Amino acid sequence: MTASSRLSERILVILPTYNEAENVTGLTRLVLQQDERIDVLVVDDGSPDGTGERVEELRADEPRVHLIRRPGKLGLGTAYLAGFRFGLDEGYSLVFTMDCDFSHNPRYLSQMIEKLRDCDLVVGSRYVKGGGIENWPWYRLLLSRFANFYARTLLRLELRDCTAGFRGYRREVLEGVDPFDVRSSGYSFLEEMAWKVSRAGFSIAEVPIVFEQRQAGSSKIESREIYLAAWKVLITALRR
Ligand SMILES: Nc1nc2c(ncn2[C@@H]2O[C@H](COP(=O)(O)OP(=O)(O)OP(=O)(O)O)[C@@H](O)[C@H]2O)c(=O)[nH]1
Ligand SMILES: [Mg+2]
User: Fold this and answer.
1) For position 7, what pLDDT does the model report?
2) Which residue, by CA, sits nearest to atom 30 of ligand 1?
3) What residue segments make up the domains of the chain, in order of their start?
4) For the structural domain made of 8-239, what CATH number should be given?
5) 130: which of 10, 50, 74, 181 lies 20 to 30 Å off by Cα?
6) Ligand 1 contact, 103 CB (< 6 A)
7) Ligand 1 atom nearest residue 75's Cα
């Protein structure tokens, strides 16, 4: 790839939000600072805390920020899909997803963008050498470890961190695997998507990241979601 084609490459970072008013402005600005080719798309699900309004304010003087407002909390999986649709329609070559709570530090973006030179999907991974998690209680660590072991085994994935939401996709992957028929939401969306990508023969690489505690606001993932994810992974494995 030539230096000029590299420069013309457009990168989309999707931030799904539900009640992230305290995080969205700061995080969006920080993401944009990482690389001038980056645009941010916030997919907000009618957050009652005014997240959407914060993004509208940002948009007034920042043309690199885009916003999709959905009427209610429709789930993380379909928020990613709305973002992928936008990314494909608007001609971005690389599409990233990140949590909007500072758990995924934007400083890893440049390394992940670089990594996409020689792979199709890059995952910001907690479970490879150099990666980790800050300040999680033991039961959450155990649950996450178990969820990964379960998904890796059932879906026969090489990927160490199957539930990581910090990812970058080459547009060819999104065109090639038809993510739009992934029906699961939340964690199982991520596991099913990793499975589809690897089954389609695309290459996956991991970049170590340290997952940090969210800066403000509260967690939106319900425990129901975890059981649902376990079930969906089993169904996916049986479809194989
Ligand atoms: N658009 C949209 N975003 C969502 C939805 N549920 C969660 N999110 C966002 O998805 C990202 C991840 O959700 P979190 O609540 O941080 O989940 P988590 O990282 O497992 O939990 P914590 O570690 O406690 O933060 C955040 O940016 C949320 O605002 C949803 O239904 N719709
Ligand atoms: Mg989080």
Assistant:
1) 57
2) 75
3) 8-239
4) 3.90.550.10
5) 10
6) yes
7) 31
